[in-house]
Amino acid sequence: MNILYIGYWGANESLSQATINPHLEILLKNSLVDKLVYTSIERTGHTTHQVPKKNQFEHIPLKANKFPFRLINKIYEVIFFRNKLISIARDYSIDLVICRSSLAGNFGLTIHKKLKIPFVIESFEPHAEYMRELGVWKKHGLSYLFQKNSEKKQSKYADRLYPVSENFEKFLIGEGCSKNKIITLPCAVDVEKFSFSKTDRQDVRTKLKIPENTITAIYVGKFGGIYYSINQALKLFLEADAYFKDFHLILLTSDNHAVYDALKKSEFPIEKVSCRIVAHDEVPAYLSASDFAFSLINRTGFSAFCSPIKNGEYWANGLPILIPKGIGDDSDILINSGLGVIMNDDTSPQDYFDQIVNLIRQKKHRETICQLAHKHRSFRLIINEYNTLMNRHNSMSLG
Questions:
Q1: What CA–CA distance (Å, rounded) separates 185 from 275?
Q2: Which of 16, 84, 257, 267 is most enclosed, with most CB atoms within 10 A?
Q3: Is 258 helix (H, G, I), strand (E, B) or coil?
């Protein structure tokens, strides 16, 4: 089988490295895959890309132009990328298209309509509604209306939909989508790669000059948009510092300049913060150096449909998570297991951190929390579904 995998982000972006590259590697190990073509949308000047190096693999970067107006950029992307992807699908005799997100699903839908090639959508989420809730798109704006309409068509014509939460699976079924085509696949992580390492803990703490007994929290990701703003997060960080006294904060974020500017204006002692931009491969070492993690996703009407990749990485390392209520399936998983702390409006920060301390003091708490990743975020889930998907489409092509 020849597979076309469509990504919507640059190949070197952290989201691609964390969620797309592992899936490409899994596909390349599948004996039914003869050729795997991966397309990414490159909006920066990168000329080298961190992608798999295999004989049956080919990466085709699609270069975006930067016109003065956003609408012109989007029209260019829709027309140029659509035509380019149709040509790629035809030239490589593609048998199946895998799209990462409903944004990439726009192109999968186009290819299906033009060439009748089946397509599936991973990480299928209500992107139009996310953008509307965040105030980025207006309810009657062209971007919202186009994406909303496309998502309805994608759910109708896609061979398989892979939402990242059971909450969204139930919603889709309630909207009339066929239950037979929906399978929940949360954002999976390499559980072994992200497992706790005592050596990494000592090395990173030595490098950052963090004493072993200092309670250290970590946050991985951006600020703003679907995540807490820097000021929202700082309020929580200050409360943690006041509670623990002997406290250190590790921030792995591309927003480091804005973070430092905000820290300087706040009362947070800057000497207690280590703010870094690191490669995705380096993240596990910093997790090992930490004692608990912040998962700072804003609660919205659609936040129950997400699956933050960082939560799987935190769990794989055995870190207790402090998370708002109503985030994907994860908040409920933590409520039911008692292995994390849920931030409710009626709960005080004192209670949050009391619970964190109780979790840290539990014997072998990291090993116990790690089992959440094995159960809910393991690559085993992806491997099993890819095997089913490849076998099904191989049988169809032979028939």
A1: 32
A2: 16
A3: helix
